[in-house]
Amino acid sequence: MEVRLEDVWFSYDGRRYVLKSINMEIKGGGLHVVMGPNGSGKTTLLKILSLIYKPTRGSVIVDGRSYWDLGPAERDSIRQHIVYVHDKPILLRGDVWYNVSLGLKLRGFNNYDYLEELIKRYGISELLKSSSRSLSAGQRRLVSIIRVLALKPRVLVLDEPFNHLDSSRVKILLEDIIAMAESSLVVIATHYVVRELRDNAVKMYELVEGSLRG
Amino acid sequence: MAEPLVDIVARSIYISLAAALIAFTFGALISLLMLVTPRRLSEMLIGVFDALVGAPTVVVGLIVYMLIYPGGPLGFLKLLYTPTALVVSQALVALPIVVTLLYRYFEQLWSDVKELVLSLGAPAGKVYPLILRESPPALIAVYLIAFSRAIGALGAVMVVGGGIEGLTSVMTTAIALEVLLGNYEYALALGGILVMLTVGLSIVARAIGGLVWR
Known about the structure:
The complex is a heterodimer. By secondary structure, chain A is of the alpha/beta class. Chain A is built from eight helices and ten strands. Chain A has a six-stranded mixed beta sheet, sandwiched between helices. In chain A, strands 2-1-4-5 form a four-stranded antiparallel beta sheet, with helices on one face. In chain A, a hairpin with a 5-residue loop joins strand 1 (2-11) and strand 2. By secondary structure, chain B is mostly helical. Chain B has nine helices and no strands. Chains A and B meet through helix 2, strand 6 and helix 4 of A and helix 4 and helix 5 of B.
C-alpha cells in the first residue's frame, strides 16, 4: 500500500496553518518515525495520513488515486486497511471487553483468537469486565492499542503510543511494532525515540512548526 | 381552606413533565439542526441560547401572555389561565438549557465517535448506531434538568396561569399565595417538597451526566 501527501496544508480555523506544504510518501512496509516538539503538528499530520482529516489544501494519494475525490464507498474500502491509535484514547460507555473488541465488531470479524492472545500478552485479562470509565491513563492506552493490533492492519499509525505505559508494556509494544513493520507499514509519532525505533526505522522525519524535514 | 397539598404537587408534576417533554423534543431537534448548519451560524445561535438560559421567567410569561390573551394573535385558542398555558410557558423556560446542553453534548459525541470509527477503519455509516448507543444516559439527564428548571419557574406560570385553585395552581404559585395569606406551615411544606424534587433531580441528573460527559 502506498500513501503520498502532495503539498498538504492544514488549518483548523481557516487562518493559521498548522501544516505547511507537506510532501511525504510511505509505501510497502517498514517503520516510519515522525518526531517533533509539542504543537508541531504531529497529530494533525498522522490524522491526515490515516485518512481521518481532509487537508485544507493539497492531495492525499492512496495507491495512485486521490482519496478525497473518491466516493464514500470507495473511501470506506480503502480506509479499512489503515488504522490509527489516538494520542488521547477514545473509549465508549461499557466494559473493557466491549471497547477492546469494538474494532473487530465494527468490521464484522468473528474470530477473536488473536485479540485474546493480545489481551493475555499485554496482561489486561483481569480488566475485561471493568468499566472503561474506571481505567487509568495507561490502561486506556493499552485498550486502544490492542483493539487496533487485533485488526492486523496493512497500515498502522500510532500517535505517542508509549505515553503512560510502564516499561514492561513499552518493551512488548516495541517488539510488536518492529515485528509488524516487517510486513506492514507502521507510522509512529513520538517524542520517546528509543534505540530500538531508531535502529529499525526505514525513515525518520522531523516536524518543526508544521514543516517537515525528512 | 387551602387545596389539598397532594393535588397541587400532582398537578405541578404532570404539567412540568409535559413541559419538559416539549422542551426536550424541540431542543433536541434544534440542537441537531444546529450541528448541520455552518459553524459560524451555529456558534452565534448557541451564544443566544446561552444568554437565554438566564432570562427572567417572568419575561417569558409576559411574552406568552401577549400571544394568548384574548386580544392577542393566539387569543382565539382561549389558553390564558389554563394548564396548557402553564405547559407552554414552562417549556419555553426550559428550552434554552436543553438546547445548550444537547448541542455541546452532540457536538463532542459526534466528533469522538466519528474519529473512533474512522480510526478503526470501519465504514463511516457505523457512526450512527454508536451514537444511538452512547446517548441515552445523557438524554435522560438533560430531560431531568429540563423538568427541574420547569417545575421551579414562578414568574412565567404566575403571569399566564394566575394560580387558580384546582386548575392552574402549582407549587411555586401556591407558595407565593399562601405566604401572602399567612399560611406559613403550608407554604413551608410545599417549599420542602419543591426543594427535594429539584435538588434530588439535579443530583440524579448530575450522577447520570457524570457517566457520560467527558
